[in-house]
Every structure is written in C-alpha cells, then in structure tokens.
Amino acid sequence: MFDKYLIDAATVRNIGPAEAPTGFAFEAKLGYYRGLTLSMIEELAITLDGVELPREAVQFDEGQGPITLDAMETAYDRRWAFGTPATIIVNHPGGLPAGEHTLALRQKLRVSYLPFPAFNTDEKTVQAA
C-alpha cells in the first residue's frame, strides 16, 4: 500500500569528496502504517541497476546517527516512525556515475501480530549529477 512512497528519488546524492565519492545516500520511508523499533527491521536490501549491493555496505540513520544493519538487530531503543524519512547510506566507491539509474529498496519487517514477515518494495529511476 505504501510501497510507492519508500524511496524519495529527489534526495539521491553522492557522499564523500566531490572528486572521489565514497558512496551515495537517499531518504526513505517505512512501508508499514505504524512505526517500528529498528530491531524489527530485518532487512533493507538495496539494488542498483539490477545488482543487489552487499548488506555490509548499507547503513541507516533515522536521525540518531548512522547504524549498520547488523547493529540494528539489537537496537531496541531506536524507532523509525511512520511517515518520517530516514537516510539510507550506501558505501559504493565512486558513488553514482552521472546519468540515470534504477534504484530499488526492499524492506523485510517483523510485525508483532503477523505470523510471517512483511515485505515492502519500491523501485525508482533516479538521476545522479
């Protein structure tokens, strides 16, 4: 239902020095109608131009500072509120080359009253400067 709102394509940007970007970042929203503690987010998988990027390259920041996906597993005191953008940071040497790219995000969420994980996906065509 909220999948088409996960990626904010207008926020995609390279990070690090302009002459040698270390990766890229973008704003994303939670695909669940209530907020969740970070420990309930089992996966944030990023695919760029059809290639899934390594889990170890991804960090998350809901406003309290970047955290790895492994550290999120025990982040019981941090919460991603519904409708609040968070920054997804991807270590990708060289950043995004100038031009058009296909960026996808898949969220795997553990929701307390569901007997199975909830999946939310979004894919957008984005422009890199």
From TrEMBL:
Keywords: Carbohydrate metabolism, Lyase
Source superkingdom: Bacteria
Chain ranges of the C-glycoside deglycosidase beta subunit domain: 2-113
Pfam families, per database record: CGDB
InterPro entries, alphabetized: CGDB
Family: Belongs to the C-glycoside deglycosidase beta subunit family.
Protein's recorded name: C-deglycosylation enzyme beta subunit
